[in-house]
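Q: what sequence does this backbone want?
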């Protein structure tokens, strides 16, 4: 899982995220520590985690979790969804999204801007930018929301 994240970041964010972050020799081990905690630590127990595989090799990973702030408009957050570039368009991204987010949930996510491919993917699957922007470590992110299927019909 860590290798997929690191590979995806390097394929997707070169020129957006500083090279010293992407090329840091400790990047993969830091991601390994995170995923070990995400899979074993009690504080992540309510999260949903899924991987996509092809030929026994992990090609994508996703994680979502509940939001505990009742003042927010949404009740779930998509924290991670990455698929290696060679598998873009294969359906792995949609399968991962559907594995960690249910249609009856109002969901938010942050996506790098610019990242037109990811933004188009999320728009195709019902997410809309709500105007919120954050900058973290020099990377600009926009927030996108998707209302539950019931709320979209209302």
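A:
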């Amino acid at each position: 899982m860590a290798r997929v994240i690191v590979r995806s970041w390097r394929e997707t964010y070169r020129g957006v995220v500083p090279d010293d972050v992407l090329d840091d020799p400790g990047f993969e081990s830091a991601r390994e520590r995170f995923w070990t905690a995400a899979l074993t630590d009690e504080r992540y127990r309510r999260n949903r985690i899924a991987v996509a595989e092809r030929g026994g090799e992990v090609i994508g990973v996703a994680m979502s979790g509940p939001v505990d702030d009742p003042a927010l408009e949404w009740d779930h957050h998509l924290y991670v969804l990455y698929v290696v570039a060679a598998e873009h368009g294969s359906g792995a991204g949609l399968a991962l999204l559907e594995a960690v987010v249910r249609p009856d949930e109002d969901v938010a996510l942050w996506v790098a801007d610019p990242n037109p491919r990811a933004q188009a993917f999320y728009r195709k699957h019902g997410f809309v930018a709500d105007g919120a922007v954050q900058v973290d470590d020099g990377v600009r992110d926009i927030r996108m929301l998707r209302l539950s299927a019931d709320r979209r019909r209302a």
